[in-house]
Amino acid sequence: MTEIDVRQKVLAANSAAAQGLREAFAASATLVVNLISSPGSGKTTLLEATARALRERLRLGALDGDIATERDALRLENAGIPAHQILTGGACHLDARQVEKALGQEARLAGLDVLFIENVGNLICPTSYDLGEDFKVALLSVVEGDDKPFKYPAIFSRAAVTVITKADLLPHVDFDLEAVRRQVSTLNPEGRWLVTSARTGAGMEAWFALLAEELSGKRSRRRAASAG
Amino acid sequence: MHEMGLSAEIYRIARGTADDHGGGRLEAVTVIVGELTAVEPDLLEFAWQAIVQGTVDEEARLLVEWLPARQLCDACGPVSERAPGSWLRLCPRCNGTLAVSGGDELEVRTVSFSGEPAVTGASG
Question: Which strands, in side-by-side order, build the sheet including B98-101?
Answer without folding.
Answer: B77-79, B70-73, B98-101
